Amino acid sequence: MWVPWVFFYFDNATIHIGKSSAIPIYLLVAIDAPKWVIKGIDKVQRGFLWAGKAQANGGCCRVAWTKVCSPKDYGGLGVPNLELMGIALRSRWTWMQRTSLAKPWQGLEIPCTQKELHLVAASTVCQLGNGQTILFWEDNWLQGGTIRAIAPSIYDHVSTRIRKRRTVAEALSNRRWIKDIRGALGTQAILEYLKLWSLIQSVDCSSGEPDSLSWKWESSGKYTSKSAYRALFLGRIAFDSTPI
Fold this sequence. Notes:
Blueprint (H helix, E strand, L loop, with lengths): L2 H18 L1 H7 L6 H17 L13 H4 L13 H18 L14 H10 E4 L19 H4 L1 H5 L3 H4 L4 H5 L3 H5 L6 H14 L11 E4 L9 H7 L13
Protein name: Retrotransposon protein, putative, LINE subclass
């Protein structure tokens, strides 16, 4: 007869932890918080869940916190993983930078790291039009893949600042993408360069049609933070989370 009380306790505990995560989640939209900040918040939440106080020590913690902070259908309690949630939320800036060109902050630096850029690149289906919005070095546009996947050595020779800004149209204009490559190239990089050159020769972005970007995790093709967050758990074993 104790089982219902156990579920009642954890359901209420996770609700309160979810509420306590609201403020840090709000801040994570704009700030890539240091790991020590995330660990500090997790420590308080872990203590509340397992011991009902600010800190839980020793054998109080029954399950690894990374497991607890997983969606219920992945075996967790649905407590937000703040690090992954931050990546998912900040990915919105990269998505809007490409799809909401009328925003007044266009052209300014956005609070995104390589993690957010890679998430958006992996989650976006690109249909090349005039090349004005698709990023040459980051997006999934060249024969269904990214240049990072096709020519990783060449990708490493391009600065992060250029990767985050160079569109396909800009890169193809006067072969500017070649000038983006810095430093001496090794044998592997030269082979990748020749392969990349061959693939790019067939690219045509003179149609005048705008680029098309679609978010693959939603049927609407539009970004949502929920789908971005869940995409970061892909590859894990899913479970049936239907209540008993």
